[in-house]
Amino acid sequence: MAAPAPAAAAAGPDLAGTSSEAVSPWDAIKGGWEREAVRMWWNGHDKGRIAKHLGKDPKTVENRFSNLRRTLGTDIVPHVNDPRRAHSHKPE
Questions:
Q1: Which domain holds residue 77?
Q2: Which of 15, 39, 65, 85 could cross-link to 26 by cystine, CB 3.0-4.6 Å?
Q3: What contacts 42, CB < 8 A, 6 or more positions away?
Q4: 82 and 69 in contact (C-beta within 8 Å)?
């Protein structure tokens, strides 16, 4: 008899589209403040507002987005003018 899979392995849909549930881009980030920051970014918040909300320096948020963009790609962390992002009411 096979051992049961660890609970963490069954904890959510993958990004390959094999789940019938909708997957958000920030679901690729395993947690921490970065996930919340990317969620806010997709929802049109600027880096200054994100930084203030999370108690971070704006430069820290900007640097982390650059690193995430380099490792995960622009499908997860789009650039500021990407039309997939919600409209931002405050210019960067």
A1: 25-85
A2: 39
A3: 24, 25, 26, 78, 84, 85, 86
A4: no
**What is the C-alpha to C-alpha distance for residues 24 and 44, in angstroms, rounded to an integer?**
15
For the cut 50, the answer to whether the pLDDT of residue 17 exceeds it is no
46, 58 contact by CB (below 8 A):
no
Write out the H or E segment, with its range, that includes residue 4: none
Residue 31: partners with Cβ closer than 8 Å, 6 or more residues away: none
Query: Is 70 inside a domain boundary?
Result: yes
Write the pLDDT tens digit of every residue in 28-71.
888 899 999 999 999 999 999 999 999 999 999 999 999 999 99
